[in-house]
Amino acid sequence: MPAQPITPAYPIDKSSAVNIDFNGDEYLLRWDGDWRETPDLTSFPHVDNATVTLIPQSERVKELWATSQVLAYGADSHIRILDSCGDKFSVCKVAINDRQRQLLQGEFSILRHLSSKDLPVVRIHQEPLADEEGIFGFRMERLSNIDIGVAAEYIPEVAKAFEEVHLTGVVHYDISPSNIMLNQNGKVTIIDFGRAGYIGQEVPSIKAVGKPKEKEIYSVESDNISLERVNGIFLRKGRFN
Predict the structure, then answer these.
(1) Quick check: helix, strand or coil at residue 34?
(2) Model confidence, pTM
(3) Distance from C-alpha of 65 to C-alpha of 19, rounded to nearest angstrom
(4) Which InterPro entries match (predicted)?
(5) pLDDT digits over 61-84, tens only?
């Protein structure tokens, strides 16, 4: 498999960097210059004008990486798909550092709480992915994206889904079109509870969006404001004007 980024570009000192998956191993790629221009990975691990460093992994992490492929990535985790799976939980959400582990541990706890109430949230395997340092991920069902061309049809169902989540005391805190998907039965399913928390609690700094000037409290109102923005995107079929 070709080398694949598993993080967005981020700064290290005065350099830019990304983490790379290559042949089941993780590498740190660093370069000087524009962070928006990732070096050519065609001949990886040989990369012009960049340094490549192997990142040690636990045996359990190595085992997962050797039997799965990268599906997507973001700032808080990356997604892998198992090469073979004996149940419906073939998608893995995986952390690669302490910050991401902390977020995924919290997300796993909240999803177990919500799943026990049969709510329209992503279904997860009840056993987390863990090594000697603790939870580094979890397995979940495979979902599909909502076609933005018909997304407006789902607005009432989306609103009801978040209302049900709020009634359990949980605030999502990161509502976006990409976090609203469909399950195998075509039903709206909410994902990505990595920044979620419980109504009335203070938002931890690790979960805060941006750099708030004052402490933030988890509230339904903040979710509703975000949901209004998403509804607008759905109504405009993804157009921003």
Answers:
(1) coil
(2) 0.92
(3) 14
(4) Kinase-like_dom_sf (IPR011009), Prot_kinase_dom (IPR000719), Tyr_kinase_AS (IPR008266)
(5) 999 999 999 999 999 999 999 999
